[in-house]
Amino acid sequence: MALSNLEKLGILFVAFFIFYCLKFLWHFLYTYAIGPAVHCVDFKSKGKWALVTGCTDGIGKEYAKELAARGCDIVLVSRSLDKLKATAEEIEKEYKVATKIIQADFSEDDKIYENIEKEIAGLEIGTLVNNVGVSYTYPEYFLDLPEWDKLIPTLIKANVVAVTKMTRIVLPEMVKREKGVVINIGSASSIIPSPLLTVYAATKAYVDKFSEGLDMEYSKKGIVVQCILPGFVCSNMSGIRRSSLFAPTAKVFVQSAIKLVGTTTRNTGYLPHAAFVNIVNSIYETANSFGTWLVVRSMENSRRKLLKKYKRQ
Ligand SMILES: NC(=O)c1ccc[n+]([C@@H]2O[C@H](COP(=O)([O-])OP(=O)(O)OC[C@H]3O[C@@H](n4cnc5c(N)ncnc54)[C@H](OP(=O)(O)O)[C@@H]3O)[C@@H](O)[C@H]2O)c1
């Protein structure tokens, strides 16, 4: 029985649909189950020490703990000395590894890097987590950002310069040893529409692109480069205190993200965040004007709430 053109078109459509679904399923299975089982990275074998920036709270602190749990000694680089000492003590006690603390404020000028370089000279750093990051206190229109002249250089220094300079300091020894892991913490805000967080999202787009190029340049030299692009995570920065499926605790988030090292070079790090990014981008791509209206409106609502909270504090 000969098929009509319409029937042939229908079969083609169904075949494409099945192919697309299978590809999608394979991608998720590979990223979150098969890959982490097969490509599980032994961080300690990459080098005795792991260095984490912005490590006394939130995502950075959890990376430091997860790496210590895997046997790495930890270099802690962050702003507040008291918090550094407390974090070091907690990690040494819990994981029986050595720690070294370096106080550095990444919103300051280049001199901090001279000190960091001196402090880590001679340490075999196998893993670098470029986590430190600064955001707005609340979502705001570009021209209305408070303390504009101070905030913008701070965002650029802490989010762009820090990841670049820290990589410049640590990578040469990794390349010499032909092994190492560099994890750069970006943000999902750079891959979904993010009005009222414009400069923050733009600095995180730098982290994403920087990681892509770095991976292409140095994977052949044995270096694993990964960019993690989280959605909302409970932390001081996000201001979210109660965890939910789409805003996990930093611990849950990092336990998921760290398993993906070696499997994927660019990921949100956490399956519900990947779903969130896909949903937002699908709405935006399918109905551009509606998507813009929706996202601006929700950011304005969030601005109103957070500004009220900020003024109360
Ligand atoms: N939380 C989220 O929803 C979310 C989403 C997407 C991406 N991210 C990214 O994830 C990373 C970590 O965010 P988080 O939410 O975990 O932040 P967090 O809980 O606020 O912790 C930030 C850490 O960085 C340190 N820090 C802040 N400013 C610093 C500076 N100028 N110099 C040195 N250290 C500094 C803080 O130390 P002090 O306590 O001493 O200030 C603290 O240890 C950032 O790059 C952020 O952009 C977070």
The proportion of residues forming helix, as a percent range, comes to: 55-70%
| Outline type | globular
Strand content: 5-15%
Main sheet: which strands, in order across?
A: 3-2-1-4-5-6-7
In CATH, the architecture is 3-Layer(aba) Sandwich
List keywords for this structure.
313 residues; alpha/beta; Rossmann fold; seven-stranded parallel beta sheet; 7 strands; 56% helix; binds NADP nicotinamide-adenine-dinucleotide phosphate; transmembrane; oxidoreductase; transmembrane helix
What does this structure look like?
This protein is an alpha/beta fold. The chain has a single domain, classed as NAD(P)-binding Rossmann-like Domain (Rossmann fold), CATH 3.40.50. 56% of the residues lie in helices and 12% in strands. The protein is built from ten helices and seven strands. The protein has a seven-stranded parallel β-sheet, sandwiched between helices. The chain starts with a helix and ends with a helix. The site of NADP nicotinamide-adenine-dinucleotide phosphate has 31 residues, from α3. This is Steroid dehydrogenase. One of its GO terms (cellular component) is endoplasmic reticulum. Residues 74-101 form a coiled coil. Belongs to the short-chain dehydrogenases/reductases (SDR) family. Keywords: Coiled coil, Membrane, NADP, Oxidoreductase, Transmembrane, Transmembrane helix.
